[in-house]
């Protein structure tokens, strides 16, 4: 029973993109590990850019500097 947790910043990810991530991740586990898609769990966490840091800055700050 695989469990995959995908963490992304909450920057306008569409439902279609999320569905593609779930489908693609599930298919990868089916293809590589022969896992049953009915018992494969994919969870997507959207993280506020204020709560995601790279180096010494938050993603919010990095986006503002660009």
Automatic annotation (TrEMBL):
Residues 2-55 form the 4-oxalocrotonate tautomerase-like domain. Its EC number is 5.3.2.-. It is an enzyme of class 5 (isomerase). NCBIfam families: taut. Belongs to the 4-oxalocrotonate tautomerase family. This is Tautomerase. Keywords: Isomerase. The lineage of its organism: Bacteria, Pseudomonadati, Pseudomonadota, Gammaproteobacteria, Alteromonadales. It comes from Thalassotalea insulae. Gene3D superfamilies: Macrophage Migration Inhibitory Factor (3.30.429.10).
